């Protein structure tokens, strides 16, 4: 499907108003640019990719199985709970880090969407000085604000990209083990394609069903990936938001924004940060009503996207919540929670992890 017109239109609105629109959850999806073809390089300029053996040491084998997907007591798009079966797959133990993403960029010279100047031909009527690279960044207001106006805490930030998470004066120095952010869905897919080329083993974003199966870690129908209590024994066991969102962050969990990956206990499958830290892109398009008719076996998402809250913008799924999710507002750290974002949009709380279709490990 071609959603580029609406995306371009939305980006034009974004840069003209200087804000980034229509976020519904604490993370839902502002929109920026869509120069999806600008990564295409002439064959003679294609970087040489050094082959590597598929190395599963940073991944775990998720055995596959049947589980109850969704939730019947939370948001409408999580309903109904339905049985889903997924095949086994390898999955990154952690979110992809700045160090890992830097290796990809160094080898391929890849330029993320947030770093690219929008093509004026794609934005007729938009003044040239508004066509600037950037991403959507969390900017906490000084005081309490009503929670029905996301523009109070999200801004379009010129110069924000994966190397500059909060804007041009920010850097990732010393943050090599933090998850990469401000990468859009297209950037994540490019990284997966690189991993496939270098290893000869298909790497890709997880489907939404694979992601939820893996996040639950074998715990059936639990509200959180560790059980029924958000803070078991009054302890924070994931990086989310404590205090009054979006202006009071008590950092009870030790982290104001992202944490280095793997700082909290792994789930039942050995995966870290499947609740909180940063949202993670999935392969699927988003449809609010998808669960009402999705197939049981290895569902791959709908053929087209539809978000009734923003019908003209196509969106991909993100999962797992982030350091901005709180009890008060978003609860995206629940394994059933679904979020959706325009695939061309980089955000300061969104990254990804990959799955691989390698052979199952030998049974010992
Ligand atoms: Ca935190
Ligand atoms: Ca996460």
Task: Tell me what you see in this structure.
The chain starts with a helix and ends in an 8-residue tail after the last strand. The chain has four helices and twelve strands. 13% of the residues lie in helices and 13% in strands. It is globular and about 55 Å long. The longest helix is centred in the middle third of the chain and has 15 residues, at 185-199. It has a domain at 65-108 and 178-356: paralog of FGE (formylglycine-generating enzyme). It has 364 residues and is of the alpha+beta class. The strands form four sheets. Strands 1-4-12-7 form a four-stranded antiparallel sheet. It has a four-stranded mixed sheet with strand order 10-9-8-11, with helices on one face. It has helices at 4-17, 98-108, 185-199, 208-216; strands at residues 59-62, 65-69, 82-86, 89-92, 134-138, 154-158, 203-204, 279-285, 316-319, 338-341, 350-351, 355-356. The structure holds calcium ion (2 copies).
Give a quick rundown of the structure:
Helix content is about 15%, strand content about 15%. The chain is an alpha+beta fold and about 375 residues long.
Main features:
364 residues; alpha+beta; paralog of FGE (formylglycine-generating enzyme); 4-stranded antiparallel beta sheet; 4-stranded mixed beta sheet; 4 helices; 12 strands; 13% strand; globular; disordered N terminus; binds calcium ion
């Amino acid at each position: 499907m071609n959603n580029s017109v609406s995306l371009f239109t939305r980006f034009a609105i974004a840069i003209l108003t200087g804000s980034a629109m229509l976020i519904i959850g604490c993370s839902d999806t502002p929109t920026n640019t869509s120069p999806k073809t600008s990564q295409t390089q002439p064959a003679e300029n294609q970087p040489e990719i050094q082959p590597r053996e598929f190395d599963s040491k940073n991944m775990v084998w998720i055995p596959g199985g049947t589980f109850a997907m969704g939730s019947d007591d939370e948001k409408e798009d999580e309903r109904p709970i339905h049985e889903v079966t997924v095949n086994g797959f390898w999955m990154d133990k952690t979110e992809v880090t700045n160090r890992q993403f830097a290796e990809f960029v160094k080898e391929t010279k890849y330029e993320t969407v947030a770093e690219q100047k929008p093509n004026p031909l794609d934005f007729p009527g938009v003044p040239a000085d508004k066509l600037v690279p950037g991403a959507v960044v969390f900017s906490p207001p000084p005081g309490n604000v009503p929670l029905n106006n996301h523009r109070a805490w999200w801004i379009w930030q010129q110069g924000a990209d994966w190397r500059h998470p909060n804007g041009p004066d920010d850097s990732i120095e010393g943050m090599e083990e933090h998850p990469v952010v401000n990468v859009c869905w297209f950037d994540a897919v490019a990284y997966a394609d690189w991993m496939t080329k270098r290893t000869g083993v298909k790497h890709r974003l997880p489907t939404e069903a694979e992601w939820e199966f893996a996040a639950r870690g074998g715990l059936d129908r639990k509200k959180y990936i560790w059980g029924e209590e958000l803070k078991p024994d009054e302890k924070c066991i994931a990086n989310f938001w404590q205090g009054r969102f979006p202006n009071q962050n008590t950092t009870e969990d030790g982290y104001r924004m992202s944490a280095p990956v793997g700082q909290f206990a792994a789930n039942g499958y050995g995966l870290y940060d499947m609740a909180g830290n940063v949202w993670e892109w999935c392969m699927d398009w988003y449809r609010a009503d998808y669960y009402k008719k999705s197939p049981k076996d290895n569902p791959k998402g709908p053929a087209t996207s539809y978000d009734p809250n923003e019908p003209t913008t196509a969106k991909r799924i993100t999962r797992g919540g982030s350091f901005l999710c709180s009890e008060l507002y978003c609860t995206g750290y629940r394994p059933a929670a679904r979020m959706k974002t325009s695939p061309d949009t980089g955000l300061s709380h969104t990254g990804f992890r990959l799955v691989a279709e390698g052979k199952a490990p030998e049974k010992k």
